[in-house]
C-alpha cells in the first residue's frame, strides 16, 4: 500500500491514507505530501471529501475488514472502492511491465530485477513488497520504459494482472486460509500465466514443470534445452560463483554477492527477465556486483555483545529450510557477510498463523532441526482465532521427537524471548530471528 501511495503522489495525485503507527515509511510518505490520519475513523473520509473537489477513490487491502469505520463511511457516500490489486493492475496496464509471482522469492527476485535495471540505466517504476536497498524504498516512480511489480498470490488477486512478462519462481501450498488445496493454487497461478504476454518459469520446480508451459524456462541444474541457466561453480557463505548459459551456450561467469542456492535461483530469474527485455548481458554483469537482498531477507540488524542479530522473513517450512541452510554454510565455510565468522547458529522462530502452523507442523519440525540451539516465540495469530492443541509447545515437542539432542526453549512472550536470547546465546553466535510477525522487534529489544 505504501509503495502505491508513493508512486501516485510522485505522479501528482493527491493521496491520503491512515495508519496508527508512526514509522519511517509513514514519515517518508508525509514528507512527500501524503496526508496521513493517525486513526481509522469516519472523520478521515469526511476530511478528504471536504478538502478535495473530486470524490476520492478508496483503496483497500484484503486485511481491511468490512467493519472498518473508514470503509463503512466510504460505502455510505457511495465512493468507488478499489482493492489494492485493482490499482496495481491499472499501473501495470499503463506501461511495459514485469510481474513476479510464486510461493517464495518474489520480493527478492523483483528487488534484484529492479536493481539490475537501475544499474543498466533503465530507471524502472517499482512496486515491491520490501525495501529495495538501492532505492531505500519499496516504491519508485521511474522515468524508464518498464514497471517491476511483485504479484502476491496470498488472496488470489494476481489474476487481474496483464503484464508484458510474468515470472513464476516456484510453487507449493501456502495461504491455506484462502486456498482449498494445491490444485486451487495451481489453477490460480495458471490464470495469472495466461494473462501474461510472455511467461518465464523455474524448470527446477517439479510442480511448475508439470503444470505450466511458459515462453521460456530457467534452471540452476541443467543448461541443455533451457533458455537461461546459471550453473553453480562455487558456493560460499557470502557469495555464489556461477556460469550463465543461454539456449545451451555459455555466455559468461559471474559472482553473486549473496549466499545460498535459493538466491542463485532468484538471481537467475532476474537475469533471465532482464535478458528477455533486451538488456545486454555485459550491462547486467556490472549490476550483479551491486545486488543486495531486500529488507527482512537475512538482514543484519546489529551486533549485541558479540552476537550477530539477523532478521529474516522466513515463515514457511521451505523458506526456513533454505535460510537455515544458508546460515549453516556461513558457520561451516568461515565466510559470511557478517562482521566476523559465526561459530554457532542460534535459531529464533515465531510461527505465523495458527492455520499455517497446523497445516505444516511436521514440515516445520523437520526444517527447524538444522541449528545448534532453537528458541520459539508464541504463535503470531495475524488476526486468527487459536486452534486447540496448535502452539509453539506442540511444535517443540515434535522437534524433540526428531532430534532429542537439540536444545529447544519456548518463550511465553517476546520479553521472555529477549531474555532467553541473552541467556542461551554467546559471543560469535549468529542469532537468526525468523518469522513474518513481531519477532523482527528482537534487535530493538536487545539494543535498548
Fold and architecture overview:
Strand 13 (240-246) and strand 14 (249-256) form a beta hairpin. The protein has three domains: 2-79, Rossmann fold (3-Layer(aba) Sandwich); 87-288, Mur-like, catalytic domain (UDP-N-acetylmuramoyl-L-alanine:D-glutamate ligase, 3-Layer(aba) Sandwich); 299-446, Mur ligase, C-terminal domain (Protein-Tyrosine Phosphatase, Chain A). The two termini are 30 Å apart. It has helices at residues 2-10, 24-31, 42-51, 69-76, 84-93, 106-119, 182-194, 206-211, 261-276, 281-288, 317-333, 354-359, 361-367, 392-402, 414-424, 442-446, and strands spanning 16-18, 35-37, 58-60, 81-83, 96-101, 125-132, 137-140, 146-150, 165-168, 198-202, 216-219, 228-235, 240-246, 249-256, 299-304, 307-312, 344-349, 373-376, 407-410, 429-434. The strands form four sheets. It has a ten-stranded mixed sheet with strand order 7-6-8-5-9-10-11-12-13-14, sandwiched between helices. The protein has a six-stranded mixed sheet with strand order 15-16-20-17-18-19, sandwiched between helices. It is globular. The model has no long low-confidence stretch (mean pLDDT 95). It has 16 helices and 20 strands. The protein is of the alpha/beta class and 448 residues long. The relative contact order is 0.09.
Amino acid at each position: 500500500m505504501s509503495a502505491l501511495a508513493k508512486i501516485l503522489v510522485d505522479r501528482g495525485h493527491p493521496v491520503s491514507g491512515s495508519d496508527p503507527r508512526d514509522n519511517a515509511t509513514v514519515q517518508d510518505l508525509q514528507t512527500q505530501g501524503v496526508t496521513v490520519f493517525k486513526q481509522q475513523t469516519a472523520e478521515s473520509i469526511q476530511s478528504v471529501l471536504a478538502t478535495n473537489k473530486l470524490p476520492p477513490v478508496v483503496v483497500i487491502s484484503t486485511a481491511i475488514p468490512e467493519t472498518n469505520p473508514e470503509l463503512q463511511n466510504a460505502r455510505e457516500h457511495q465512493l468507488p472502492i478499489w482493492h489494492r490489486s485493482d490499482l496495481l493492475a491499472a499501473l501495470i496496464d499503463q506501461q511495459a511491465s514485469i510481474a513476479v509471482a510464486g510461493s517464495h522469492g518474489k520480493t527478492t527476485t523483483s528487488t534484484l530485477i529492479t536493481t539490475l535495471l537501475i544499474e543498466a540505466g533503465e530507471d524502472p517504476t517499482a512496486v515491491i513488497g520490501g525495501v529495495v536497498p538501492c532505492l531505500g524504498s519499496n516504491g519508485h516512480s521511474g522515468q524508464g520504459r518498464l514497471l517491476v511489480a511483485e504479484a502476491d498470490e496470498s488472496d488470489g488477486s494476481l489474476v487481474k494482472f496483464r503484464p508484458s512478462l510474468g515470472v513464476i519462481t516456484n510453487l507449493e501450498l501456502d495461504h491455506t486460509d484462502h486456498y482449498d488445496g494445491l490444485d486451487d493454487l495451481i489453477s490460480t497461478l495458471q490464470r495469472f500465466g495466461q494473462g501474461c504476454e510472455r511467461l518465464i518459469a523455474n524448470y527446477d520446480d517439479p510442480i511448475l514443470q508439470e503444470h505450466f508451459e511458459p515462453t521460456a524456462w530457467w534452471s540452476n541444474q541443467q543448461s541443455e534445452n533451457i533458455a537461461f541457466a546459471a550453473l553453480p561453480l562455487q558456493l560460499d557463505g557470502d557469495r555464489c560463483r556461477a556460469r550463465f548459459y543461454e539456449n545451451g551456450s555459455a555466455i559468461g561467469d559471474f559472482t553473486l554477492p549473496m549466499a545460498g542456492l535459493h538466491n542463485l535461483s532468484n538471481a537467475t530469474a532476474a537475469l533471465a527477465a532482464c535478458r528477455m527485455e533486451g538488456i545486454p548481458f555485459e550491462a547486467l554483469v556490472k549490476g550483479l556486483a551491486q545486488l543486495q537482498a531486500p529488507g527482512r531477507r537475512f538482514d543484519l540488524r546489529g551486533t549485541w555483545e558479540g552476537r550477530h542479530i539477523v532478521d529474516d522473513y522466513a515463515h514457511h517450512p521451505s523458506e526456513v529450510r533454505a535460510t537455515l541452510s544458508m546460515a549453516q554454510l556461513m558457520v561451516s565455510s568461515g565466510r559470511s557477510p557478517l562482521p566476523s565468522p559465526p561459530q554457532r547458529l542460534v535459531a529464533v522462530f515465531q510461527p505465523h498463523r495458527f492455520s499455517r502452523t497446523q497445516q505444516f507442523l511436521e514440515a516445520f519440525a523437520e526444517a527447524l532441526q538444522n541449528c545448534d540451539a532453537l528458541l520459539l516465540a508464541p504463535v503470531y495469530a495475524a488476526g486468527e482465532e487459536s486452534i486447540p492443541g496448535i502452539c509453539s509447545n506442540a511444535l517443540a515437542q515434535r522437534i524433540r521427537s526428531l532430534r532429542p539432542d537439540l536444545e529447544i526453549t519456548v518463550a511465553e512472550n517476546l520479553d521472555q524471548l529477549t531474555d532467553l536470547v541473552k541467556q542461551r546465546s554467546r559471543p560469535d553466535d549468529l542469532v537468526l530471528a525468523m518469522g513474518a510477525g513481531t519477532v523482527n522487534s528482537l534487535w530493538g529489544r536487545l539494543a535498548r
